[in-house]
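EI: anyone free to look at a 196-residue chain?
SC: sure, send it
EI:
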Amino acid sequence: MEYQRRDAEQMRERIIDAAVHLFEKGGSSIVSMRKIAERIDYSPAALYLYFKGKKDILLALSDRGFSLLYQRMLPVASTPDPKERLLELCRVYLAFAAEEPEYYRLIFSDPEVHYPNPTEDSASKPAYLTYSLLQDATQECMERGLLTAGDPLAATVGMWSAMHGVASLLSGGRMHVVPQERLDSLADDVLRFILR
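SC: here you go
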C-alpha cells in the first residue's frame, strides 16, 4: 500500500514537472493534458487518475509559485523591526512579480485558478504561509504603535491590494503617467506612503 502511494506521488510530481516545463515556456495557456502526456510519454486519459483536469494542475503550479514567493520572503521574515520587515516583504513581493511574471499572473490573475480559502492545514498551505508573513508583520506593527491600530486583516488586505496594483501596473507596462526615472523608486515611495 505504501509503495502504491509513493508511486502515485512520484507520478503526480512528474506530471507537475512536465506542466512547469510547459508553463515556463509560454504560460498557462499552453499547458494542456495532451502536451503534458506527450512530455512524460503517458496517455492523456491516464493523467486523470492523478488530477481531475487542467484546473487542478494549474492549482498545483500555483502552489509552486506560492512556494517560490514564500521562499523569497522567508529570509526577511526575521527582520527585527516589524515596519522594516513589512517594507522588505512588500519589496520581495514586487520583485517576484517583476522576475516571475508568469507565476505572478497565474497566482493572482488567471481565471482558471480558483484558490480555496487557504488555511494552515489546507492543500493551499504555501498561500497561507505567504499571507501569514504579511499579516503577522502588520499585526506586530499595530501592536507596537508603528501603524494605526485597527483590524490587521483589513490592513493586510489593503496593503496587499495596493502592492498588487503597483505590481500589475509595473509588470503590464501601464505606468505611462510616471516618468521613467521615477519607476525604480516608485514602489518604495508607494510602500512608504501606505506604511506612514
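EI: The mean pLDDT is 84.
SC: 👍
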